[in-house]
Amino acid sequence: MSTATTLWERYQTWLYYNEALGLYLDISRMSFDDAFVASMRPKFDRAFAEMAELEGGAIANPDENRMVGHYWLRDADLAPTAEIKAEITTTLDQIEGFVSQVHSGAITAPNGQKFTDVLSIGIGGSALGPQFVAEAIAPVNAPLAIHFIDNTDPAGIDRTISRIGDRLATTLAIVISKSGGTPETRNGMLEVQAIFADHGLDFTKQAIAVTGVNSKLDRVAKTEGWLARLPMADWVGGRTSELSAVGLPAAALQGIDIRAMLDGAKAMDTATRIAELEHNPAALLALAWYHGCNGKGEKDMVILPYKDSLLLFSRYLQQLVMESLGKEKDLDGNTVYQGLAVYGNKGSTDQHAYVQQLREGVPNFFATFIEVLSDRDGVSPEVEPGVTAGDYLSGLLQGTRSALYENQRDSITLTVKTVDAFTVGLLIALYERAVGLYASLVNINAYHQPGVEAGKKAAAAVLELQTKIMTALKTATKPLTLEEVAIAIDQPDEIEAIYKILRHLHANDRGVTIIGNLGKPSTLQVSIVG
User: Fold this and answer.
1) Can you say whether residue 408 is alpha, beta or left, with left for phi > 0 and alpha for psi between -120 and 50 degrees?
2) Fewest CB within a 10 Å sphere: which of 179, 210, 412, 432?
3) What angle do CA 83, 437, 427 make, to 5 degrees?
């Protein structure tokens, strides 16, 4: 039997197809064998059982004593309590009611005109999902154009506001923060409030809050009379929140069919509840990932969507996968340093970028090709006799896949019929489930993020140090060296941080004078201007 025949048989053996979903999944180009699959079956039996417990309302985030229930968002009948079911349905009705009033003009900007733009202020899961969805399926002539402030970068904020321009008076701001205390989101909100005030606009009449019930932000929005307050449930984590009040309002305001997104996710949830490896696409993905990185993150996952509209999918998956799976400890307290690095751009752009390394360089990855069968709405012209631009795109995907395989580089191919709201919903749900199953396979908690919290605490410590530095300089009777500053604030081991803080303040004309060679910190003397 020829190698080609054997490969064809392997392809047919491992090809998953679901007609209702319009989805194909091919893991045949991952180089696992039957013995590997047999060894994984007991792990999957446990993973399927744990996933069922999760959906049933088991505490999955012991750090915060929280359930993890993003699956209930698209099928409220599965919610473990009547209260949670009511919360889901009421919130969705509230979102659709508000959006309908905005679109009809029943709710307008203070000047009486219809809203023209949406300014979404959030970070992490409160930004990546909405950005991905907007790029993927927002209509060209959306009822409202969307813009994002997803960082605490002043120049980035200025650039976003400049794009809105004279439409600021008809811009609806959405502030998204579960706790209401996320520093980056708070900063973006305060910056935008100041910009609105500078333009003589009342931010409170053009803003809605998406936040936890009775959070700091919720209380502020209620007291100030914002246009609306939409609740974020504590059982929905940021990286799995796109199909909640985090992502649905922005999507609906752009004219995206959010019910179709939810239907797609619900259909995929049903398909991925099947407790049989060969008939569960999320389990097949998790199997391929485990083999691809030896269950230890030894190789990276490259995401290559061959469709411009899926450009941000790899960025969205970076948080979903890496924040979920990047853990120091396993569930038994052992140090394991788990994770799965994700990067990617799009095909065929990458034919001219890093595919050269993928084919011939360090074999430290496995690839996921994402194929979209439909080229466009309408008929494509021929760019060569009998060949369209879409044919080229398909050929480049298949050619790259073959070229990688010929050089013993593993790959997965995920194929969908088109990119629409239903498909985006099912893609989100597919990868959410695959992450959960993979986490079980490697015995980690996918639903907490202690490393993120550690970074936030470290940042707060730097800002506290900055306050102490400025206090010391204001009370000093002469310019101080960095060492003298450190002694004055009783932080002798923080000289490097002190140097970087002062350098930043000096560069931004924040009242700090620095004399000496900035490249030789020991020569510097610092003081307060005036």
Assistant:
1) left
2) 179
3) 75
Query: pLDDT band at 503, cuts 50/70/90?
Result: very high
Please state, in angstroms and rounded to a whole number, the distance separating the CA atoms of residues 176 and 199.
23
**Please, what is the Cα angle at 416 between 410 and 418, to 5 degrees?**
140
CA distance 430 to 268: 6
Residue 324's identity, in one-letter code, is S
Active-site residue among 19, 276, 352, 406?
Answer: 352
The DSSP output letter for 114 is P
**What is the Rg, in whole angstroms, of the alpha carbon atoms belonging to the chain?**
26
Tokens for 47, please give them: 């993973």
Give dist(CA 483, CA 522) in Å, integer. 8
CB distance 486 to 494 below 8 Å: yes
* pLDDT tens digit sequence for 169-196: 999 999 999 988 889 999 999 999 999 9
Whether omega before 348 lies within 30 degrees of 0, making that bond cis, reads yes
Distance of CA 293 to the CA centre of its chain: 22
- Is position 323 annotated as part of the catalytic site? yes
Indicate which residue of 114, 216, 417, 456 is catalytic: 456
Active site residue 55: no
CA distance 479 to 472: 11
CA distance 311 to 510: 39
Catalytic entry in 242, 323, 432, 494:
323
Strand partners, 229: 209
DSSP secondary structure of 327-360: EEE-TTS-EEEE---EEE--TTGGGGTTHHHHHH
Instruction: Map tokens 């600021």 to a residue.
Output: 168
DSSP calls for 362-392: ---EEEEEEEES---SSPPPEEETTEEHHHH
d(Cα 189, Cα 175) in Å, to the nearest integer? 7
What's the rounded Cα separation, in Å, for the pair 338 and 440?
Answer: 12
d(CA 25, CA 401) in angstroms, rounded, equals 14
Are residues 286 and 444 in contact, defined by beta-carbon separation less than 8 angstroms?
A: no
Tell me the C-alpha to C-alpha distance, in Å, between residue 240 and each of 92, 281, 289, 344.
16, 19, 20, 20
Token couple for 277: 């490896």
Checking if the pLDDT of 159 tops 60, the result is: yes
**Residue in this structure with the two tokens 């900055």, named with its chain if needed:** 466
Q: How many CB atoms lie within 10 A of CB 350?
A: 20
